[in-house]
Structures are given as C-alpha cells and as structure tokens.
Amino acid sequence: MNWVLLSYLIIFLCFLLHFPSYICLVCNHDDKYALLQFKNTFLVPNSSLAFDPCSSHFSMMESWNNITDCCGWDGVTCDSKSGHVIGLDLTCSDLRGELLGSNSSIFRLRHLQQLYLDFNDFSGSSIHSAIGDLVNLTHLTLSGSGITGHVPSTISHLSKLLYLGLISIDLLLLLNDPTTSYSEMRLDPYTWNKLIQNATNLKEISLGRVNMSSIRESSLSLLTNLSSSLVSLYLLDTQIQAKLPTDIFRLPNLQEIDLSYNENLRGELPNSNWTTPLRFLSLSSTAFSGYIPDSIAHLKSLSSLTLRDCNFNGLLPLSLFNLTQLDQLDLSENKLVGPIPTHITKLSKLSYLYLSGNMLNGPIPRWCYSFPSMLSLDLQDNQLTGSIGEFSTNFLQYLLLSNNKLQGNFPNSIFQLQNLKFLGLSSTNLSGIVDCHQFSKLRALVYLDLSSNNFLSVNFENNFDYILPNLQYLNLFSSKLISFPKFLAPMQNLQGLDLSHNRIRGSIPNWFRENLLRSWKNISSIDLSFNKLQGHLPIPPNGIQIFLVSNNKFSGDISSAMCNATTLYVLNLAHNNLTGLIPQCLGTFPSLWALDLQNNNLYGSLPHNFSKGNSFQTLKLNGNQLNGPLPQSLTHCTKLEVLDLGNNNIEDMFPYWLETLPTLQVLSLRSNKFHGVINSFHTKLPFPRLKIFDISNNYFIGPLPASYIHNFQGMMNANDNQTGLKYLGNDSSYTDSIVIVMKGQSIELERILTVLTTIDFSNNMFEGEVPKAIGELHSLIGLNLSHNRITGTIPLTLANLSNLEWLDLSWNQLKGEIPMALTNMNFLEVLNLSQNQFEGVIPTGGQFNTFENDSYVGNPMLCGIPLSKFCNEDKERATRSIVDEEESGFGWKCVVVGYACGIMFGIILGCNVFFVGKPQWLARLVEVVLNMRLIRTNKKPYKS
Ligand SMILES: *[C@@H]1O[C@H](CO)[C@@H](O)[C@H](O)[C@H]1NC(C)=O
Ligand SMILES: *[C@@H]1O[C@H](CO)[C@@H](O)[C@H](O)[C@H]1NC(C)=O
Ligand SMILES: *[C@@H]1O[C@H](CO)[C@@H](O)[C@H](O)[C@H]1NC(C)=O
Ligand SMILES: *[C@@H]1O[C@H](CO)[C@@H](O)[C@H](O)[C@H]1NC(C)=O
Ligand SMILES: *[C@@H]1O[C@H](CO)[C@@H](O)[C@H](O)[C@H]1NC(C)=O
Questions:
Q1: Which of 276, 396, 479, 943 is deepest in the core (most CB within 10 A)?
Q2: Which regions form coiled coils (predicted)?
C-alpha cells in the first residue's frame, strides 16, 4: 500500500469515527521526506556517556520511518490545519555529525516556527546561511552542541524570532572529557545590528562563547530598541570589548541579565531608574567598576545578585541587606570595604552569601550564625576580626571563613552542624585544640581545611575511628603534623590531600602506599611537599592529576611504575635526593604541563621522545647531573614557556632549533658544558616571546649572538599594555620559580613576573664588541656580560635601556669613556664596570651618585668620585652636574623614587595575584546551558 492510499484511508476513518482532529493529522508529504532525509545525515549514536546532562536520552529519530505519519513522530509538531511541520524538538537526541550543511533538507521545512537542537554533538559544524529562509522561526536554540564558525548574516531575516539560544560549547563532549578543546562561534557587528533591528520582538537572547570582540557600544545600545520585549539577556564569555550602555539596566521588562566572563566589558551600575522586574543579575568576571549604588535595593524582585570578580569599590552597600527577595548575594573578589551590617530586618530568604576576597573589616555579625535559611556563608579572604560566635542554624552546608584575623577559641558549635559539607577555617588566629573525634557528627563533610592556624593545635594523628566517611578533600598544610592522619585509611572517596609544610618524618607508611594504589580510586591531587619524608617515593596511581612531593628527603630511583600515571598534569619531585635515570615515559604523558625534577641527583639524558601535541609548559630539570645532547623532540613542546636545564653536565652545541618554540619565555642553560659559536639564524623571528635568556657559565665562544639580540621581540615591549603585576603560569597547583643572578646575588624567585626580562651571557668566552642592537631591548631589566673577552667601547644605545635595574660588564676588555648618557637610566640600581680598561672621568648625576668604589675598581685609567683617584677637571665637573640636576629637576628625590619603583621591588614586596581559571566561566556556561534545558523541558510550548 503506498502512502497516498494510506493517508486517504486515515482521513476517511477519521471522518467516519469523528476522532478529534489532532490524532488524524496527516503530515505534509514533502516535509516528511525532508525529515527522513535529515535523519539519514546522522550517525547512529553508539558511545555511552559517563556524564549526561539529558535526563532521558532518546534516539527520537528511531520512530521516524516512511510508514507512519510524521505528525506522530517523536519531536515533530504539525500545524493542525495544513499538516505542515512547524516544530522540531531534537534536544538530547544523541545526534552526532554535520548539521545544517548547505543542502540540509531541514531548510525545506519552510513552515518551521520552533527548532530546538540543543545537547547534541555537532562539533565543528557551522550554521548555514539558508537558516535565513526559515522566516517564520520564533524559537531557535542550538546550545551545548559545539556549533562553531560565523553566525550567518542571513539570521537577521528571522524577524519573528522570540528566543535565540546559541551557546557554543559541546557539553556532551566536554563533560565526558574535560580536556576537550573548545572552539567558538563568531558574530560580527553587521549581523548583530541587522538582527536586533529586524527581530524587534526578541524576548530572550542567549549567546555564550560566541566571539563578539568587534561589537562596540553603539551595537550594544541597539538593545534598547527591544525595550518592550526583552526579558532575558545572556551574553557569556563573548569577548566583548566595550562599555555597556547604562540604559540597558533600565529596560522596562528585563528580568534576567547575565553578562559574566567578559573581561573587557566595562560599565557602571545606574544610580536611579532601575528596571523594576529584574530578578537575576550577574556580571561576574567583567570590568564593571564604580560603586554599588544603594538604589539597587529598589529592585524588589531581585533574587540573585552576582557581581563576583569585578572592579567594584567603595562601601559594602548596606541597603542590599534590606531586600526581601534576595536568595543569593555574591559580591566576592572586589575591592569593597567597611563592615557587614550588624542589624538587618528582613532578608528572610537569603540562602547564599558570598563576600570573600574583599577588604571587609569588623566582626562577623550575629545574624550570620543564626539565619534560618542560610545554606552557604563565604566570608574568606577579608580582614574580619573578633571571635566566631556559636552557630544556631542547622542547615548550613558551606562555611568558609579562612584567611581573616579571627581569634578566640575554635567554636565548638561547628561540630553540631550536621549538614555541613564544606568547612574552610585556615589562616586564622584561632586557638585551642581540635581533635578528630569531635568531627563524628559531621558525616556529610566533603571538604575540610584547617591549614595554617598557628595557634591551634590540630590532633588528627592517633585516631582509628571511622569518622568523616564522605570526606573528599583534606587540607592540613602548616599544621605541625608529625605523622599521617590514620583516619584516612578506611576512606573510599578521597580526592585531594594536602599535608605539605608539616613535620612528617620517616618513610611513607605502608597503609598509605596501599591506599594510594588500591583504595583511593578517585584521588586526583596529593601534596606532601616540604616535610621530612625519606625512603622510596610513593607511586602515584593512574587517574591522579597533581602529585607534589618536593622538598623532602626521598631517595632511590624514580620507579618505572610512575609510567602508569599517564593522567598527570603536574609532577613535582624537586629538591629530594633522587638518583638514577629519568623515566623515558614522562615525555609521552599527554596532559603533563609542569614537570619539575630540579635539584636531585638524576643522571643520564633527558627523555628523548617528547610526543607531538604534548602539553608541557614548564620543564625544570636543573640542578642534576644530566648529560648527553639535548633531544630534538623538544621542538614538539610547542606550548613550552619555561625550560630550565641549568646546573647539569649537558654537553652540546647551542640548541638553535628551540628558536621556533612560539611561547618560550624562559630559557636557562646556565652552568653546563655547552660550547661553540652561536651564529645560527635559521628562523625569521627566533624566540619570539623570550624574556629570560641565561646561558652563563658555559664554554661559548665567538661574538655575542647579535642576530638574536636584534630579534628578541619579547624583550622589546614586555611592559606595554600591562596593568598591575602578572606572573607566568595560570594554575594554583604549580607556580614557576627560577634562580637568576640578580644584582650580583643568586636569588630564587618563587614566581616569575611576566615583565622580568634579563639576559645573562656571563662566564663564557665571548669576544668582539657589544652589539648596538642591545639598546632596542627596551624592557630589559638585567644585563650581565661579565667574565668574557668583550672588547670595544660601551655603545651609546645602551642608555636607551631605561628599565634596566642591573648592569654587569665586569671582567672584560672594554675601553673608552663611560658614556654620560648612562646617567639617564633612572632605575639602575647595580652597576659593575670593574676590571676593564675604561678611562676618563666617571659620570655623576642620577643613579650614578649612588654607586660606590667597587663598581669601578680595576680600571687603572678611570678617575673621579667615588674612586680615590682625582681627575684634573674634577672641580669643574662637580659643580656642573649639580647645576644640571637642578635644571632638569633630577635630584636625589627622583633617585630615591626611581629606586623604589623598580619592578623587582614588587617581587620582594610579594604581591598577591589571583588567577581566574577557565573552569569558572566554563562552569557557569555549563550551568546556564543546563538551566535552559530545565526551563525548556518545563515549558515545551507544543507538546501536551
Ligand atoms: C521505505 O523505506 C524502505 C527502507 O529505506 C524502502 O526500502 C522502501 O522502499 C520505502 N518505502 C516507501 C514507500 O518509500
Ligand atoms: C509564515 O507565517 C505567516 C503568518 O502566519 C503565514 O502567512 C505564512 O504562510 C507562513 N509562511 C510559511 C512558509 O509557512
Ligand atoms: C528583515 O526581515 C524580513 C522578513 O524576514 C526580511 O525580508 C528582510 O530582509 C530582513 N531585513 C534584514 C536587514 O535582514
Ligand atoms: C529617571 O526617571 C525620571 C522620571 O521618569 C526622569 O525624569 C529622569 O530623567 C530619569 N533619570 C535618568 C538618569 O534616566
Ligand atoms: C534597613 O531597614 C531598617 C528597618 O526598616 C532601617 O532602620 C535601616 O535604616 C535600613 N538600612 C538601610 C541601609 O537602608
């Protein structure tokens, strides 16, 4: 029987039996074949997912076949009169493959009004311009499916759009393999402007991980044209670099605004005339600044306010605490000052209060301990004082008060909070004794951090009871522990353990080794560094990501059993007494980005099989006895930023082939047996990002490598466009450190400032002149050419190095006068010109007035202050330079200021830096996409 006959038969039966019309819909023939064709473009799903955002997974298309009527198919809605397909919902349908290619049959469904394709796997597909043919679309959502490419300009033809959802991550892939790299969509201003101008009824705009970096304020202000319709505006992680017009906050119907993770989106909150229905406002990780106005309290419907990690300053707005609907308040990571209000009247729904990372002072008010609806209280990283009161709320799940100036006794009422999951009370001045048996009621506890409480005695060592059965993270660093907490032994769920900076001695107990390999199946991070552990290294199991055991006394070989831990991200075995060879397998771990084996007694060669596409950013093998030539496979480490091979016995020519590494910033080959001439110039832009270049204490000969010096782009403009201090690396689990000779002393920098740019060629056998091009390295902070055979005069261009803080040219054969122009180097703190053949008068003025005798000794023909040898024209000069100083306004005051402003001074002061890791924005995107899924499943408009 063919389909025509069948259709007629159904219509006839309907007519005969008076069925309601929707049962008897007959699907349009062309639409049906378009759908069947669409079905055939997809692969049949086969993989099972570890994590699944879809509550149920259908292969909806299973019910699609050429026998049944398409209006009855899963996910298909037809118009009741015409039988045309007007709705297609393939959310969570496990579709995999290329979507919406130019000839996709979906574009033949001209009557479509609603098209939902979220949570499938269309990675790499882009939206074809034919989407503009579906002019009757009111709902278009493609979120969480990995769509990339340009949003076609024809999307502006969809003038009836009400809901647009394009969040460009592949959720299914991502949640099952977090290492997936994710690409993005692009949306240009032309398309955006047309769309906003044409689709004037838009209610909801959800764009995430769409590159809108060329969108400007004028385009954003077009949103005000949607004033009567716009209800939800979600623009997450869109790279917008513009100021948001304040009027957006005044659109009369807006209920939800989420603009988070747009680091360069600026703006301020309005002082008046806020949009009244606003329920949800999130501006996390944007550049919004200014005060949080008290008028924000006029938003009577506001239930969630998230302004985390912006630049807001001023007082914590007390009026906020009189809002009655507020359920979540997050003002963390700003620069807010003042106290938390002691008296509040309403705020009866508040469940989540996050104020961490500000400069709040005063005590924690009493209501925080007793607020009935409170689930989360995060006040850490502030300057709160006083003691912690007794808790009388029973529902609290998150309590984070770390890093405040709290004192007094450890509050015993905490041990009664049976619902507590997270407890962070590190770095306080609390005193008393905490014994592990007190935790017996906290059976829900997942995270416990009591680290760095100098006045608290933490007794976790002599207890065999089965406590804290659900604990996943235990942080007890700097807690004066002398042995491993035995209560960890029966735990199954442990994921993270930090026992660093304690006094644990002896070898690792057997139960700990056993657990590590067998019971702790989910362990991902272990930190035992800075103890006094000895004996053989513990073996990290497969599955672990972070393994830190540096600064102990471990000895013996690195066992080849280490090769099972292929999941490692960070491996730090530095500062132990390890011997033997480096296991070759380490070069093949796909995710390992930091490998630190420095200061052991390892010998043999480097791993010689660094695999293609590896993740290495930091490779520190310095301070061992490694020999042999360098493996050329290091060129596969294309993400490498720090390569430190100093203090080994490596015998090789200069590895010019490292020139091509695009992000290499630190290269140290100091104190090895490198030799030969560095005359290679093989790449157009060699070492494009290099900032620290240390090849001192080797056997290099020939001229200084002028071709490199001429091209070190990274040393020419490192300070430009930079606000504040930034350090290398982006992860709190490992920070790059480096030993450099700075101002004549060997110093270990625990973090590497990205502005630190130094060259050290000292203690080689370089000869010839100092290349003039050195004056182009404007960002250079330190230059050491000492102990070589350099001849000629000091090039005048050297005076252009206006950021230079130390300059060592000692023990060479330089001659001529010391150029007067060098006195313009305002930051020069250390100068060593000794043991050369300089002649004439030592210049005076500027920083030169601070240098002493030993900067110049061993130059028999040099004269003037501070040497005891006078010059003939001394008197005349001295008076002249004083006049010069006064005329140019350059006197002692400036010298002192200059001294204090040196970049390296910042390091010594130790500046705090926050790393905003990607996972945060990702988490929010995932949350938004998942929420939309929830919302959508509740309000599916066309399925009863
Ligand atoms: C229905 O589909 C099957 C399998 O693809 C095919 O063999 C058959 O010819 C189709 N029937 C009609 C009526 O198109
Ligand atoms: C689009 O909608 C309009 C108005 O409802 C209707 O007249 C028109 O036929 C529709 N177009 C298509 C292709 O369905
Ligand atoms: C606006 O929408 C209409 C109707 O779909 C379309 O014909 C027109 O081309 C669109 N204009 C722009 C600028 O896209
Ligand atoms: C606020 O609203 C009032 C009354 O509508 C109006 O007069 C005033 O100009 C508005 N202020 C701003 C800054 O828009
Ligand atoms: C909060 O409300 C109380 C009582 O209504 C009032 O006394 C107090 O001034 C209000 N605080 C602020 C900052 O508006």
A1: 479
A2: none
Taking the CA of 5 as reference, the closest ligand is 1
Do 480 and 458 form a contact (C-beta atoms < 8 A)? yes
pLDDT on residue 4: 43
Is residue 66 in contact with ligand 1, taking CB distance under 6 Å? Answer: yes
Q: Whose CA is nearest to atom 11 of ligand 5?
A: 319
Peptide bond between residue 866 and the one before it cis (omega within 30 degrees of 0): yes
Reduce the secondary structure of 88-104 to three states and give it as a string.
EECCCCCCECCCCCCCC
**Three-state SS at 315:** strand
The residue contributing the CA closest to ligand 4 atom 5 is 273
CA of 117 to the centre of ligand 5 (A): 48
Which CATH number characterizes residue 200's domain? 3.80.10.10
Which atom from ligand 4 is nearest to the alpha carbon of 250?
14
Q: How far is the CA of 117 from the centre of ligand 2 (A)?
A: 22
| Closest C-alpha among 406, 399, 415, 384 to residue 449 | 399
Q: Which two three-digit tokens encode residue 464?
A: 């065999």
Whether residue 96 is contained in a domain is answered as: yes
pLDDT in tens, 608-634: 899 999 999 999 999 999 998 899 999
Q: Is 345 in the pocket of ligand 5 (CB under 6 A)?
A: yes
Give a yes or no: residue 389 inside a domain.
Answer: no
**Which of residues 166, 188, 211 is at a domain's end?**
211
- State the Cα–Cα distance between residues 490 and 484, nearest whole angstrom: 13
CB 82 within 8 A of CB 112: no
Dist CA 728 CA 194 (whole Å) = 42
Exposed/middle/buried for residue 938 (C-beta within 10 Å: 0-12, 13-18, 19+):
exposed
Distance 66 CA to ligand 1 centre (A): 6
Q: Which residues, including other chains, have CB under 8 Å from residue 934's CB and lie 6 or more apart?
A: none
- Pocket lining: 319 vs ligand 3, CB cutoff 6 Å: no
Closest CA to 535 of 554, 563, 551, 549: 554
CA 137 / ligand 2 centre spacing (Å): 10
| pLDDT by 10-residue block (mean), the chain, 944 residues | 45 42 67 86 56 57 83 88 89 72 81 88 84 94 86 95 87 62 84 96 93 95 93 93 95 94 95 90 95 90 94 90 84 94 76 94 91 90 94 90 94 92 94 89 92 91 77 93 89 91 94 91 92 95 93 95 93 96 94 94 94 92 93 94 94 92 92 90 81 94 89 72 52 67 65 76 95 89 94 93 90 94 87 93 87 90 84 53 35 25 28 28 59 45 26
User: Taking the model in full, what pTM does it have?
Assistant: 0.77
Print the domain residue range for 941. Answer: 907-944
Count: domains in the chain: 2
Domain boundary among 211, 233, 262: 211
**Residue 51 included in any domain:** yes
Q: Examine residue 122 and state whether it is found in any structural domain, yes or no.
A: yes
User: Nearest to residue 347, comparing CAs of 319, 387, 310?
Assistant: 319
